[in-house]
Design brief:
With 219 residues, the protein is mainly α. The protein has 2 domains: 85 residues, no CATH class; 117 residues, no CATH class. The protein is 76% helix and 0% strand. The protein is built from 8 helices and no strands. The model has no long low-confidence stretch (mean pLDDT 85).
Length: 219
């Protein structure tokens, strides 16, 4: 696909994502202040991502699938970062769609569905462990130690990345989340002279970043 056309389409998709990031959470009575300059950031990010996908996959069914998955990742990332929620209205249709079109994926339906199953089992296990640990320690973390939405997002990520790429995708997610948590605690210590150990840190954006990278590069 021509680079300029892919860039333009990506920018338009970014504008649609920005509108969806406002309207979808509001429909579920989830409110929070949007990021400053969010519209332009999303449009530019989407445009650059689509342009890169165009050079990576060319005019093919893989490009179409990667573009759709990129839009889903970006929408989930923005909403979860701003609102601390992964909406079922977004992620459940995304899981169903990815599963249904998995025979068209370059990695094939077996590796796609196996990747989704592995991601579900691993991240659901982490979710259960985190719930048990937080109750055992008496930690009252807003939104829970680990969200059910993260399990659903991980399942989508696993279908998109496939097996065995799902393993580094989960590992990179955990590493990125760990680095973000350390930086957040350091900021709290410097700025407020305290450690907010029970603060909720959204993992959705890290699933999205790691999933997108593994989808594109297949490392």
């Amino acid at each position: 696909m021509e680079l300029g056309l892919a860039f333009l389409i990506g920018g338009i998709v970014g504008i649609v994502i920005d509108r969806a990031a406002d309207r979808l959470p509001a429909a579920y009575h989830v409110y929070n202040a949007p990021l400053p300059y969010r519209r332009w950031l999303i449009a530019l990010t989407s445009a650059v991502a689509f342009a890169f996908l165009g050079t990576r996959f060319g005019a093919s069914i893989q490009l179409l699938l990667a573009a759709i998955y990129t839009a889903v990742f970006l929408l989930v990332l923005v909403i979860d970062y701003e609102r601390r929620v992964i909406l079922n209205v977004v992620i459940l249709p995304a899981i169903i769609f990815a599963a249904l079109v998995s025979p068209l994926a370059q990695i094939g339906w077996r590796r796609s569905l196996l990747g989704g199953a592995v991601a579900f089992v691993v991240v659901f296990g982490i979710y259960i462990f985190a719930e048990i640990f937080s109750r055992w320690r008496g930690l009252k973390i807003q939104g829970g130690a680990f969200g059910q939405g993260d399990v659903k997002l991980a399942t989508f990520m696993g279908i998109v990345t496939g097996f065995p790429a799902v393993f580094p995708a989960i590992l990179y997610t955990i590493l990125l989340g760990g680095v973000a948590a350390i930086l957040f605690l350091a900021y709290q210590l410097v700025a407020h002279r305290r450690l907010a150990l029970t603060a909720a840190i959204p993992y959705g954006p890290f699933f999205c970043i790691a999933g997108w990278a593994l989808m594109v590069f297949g490392m």
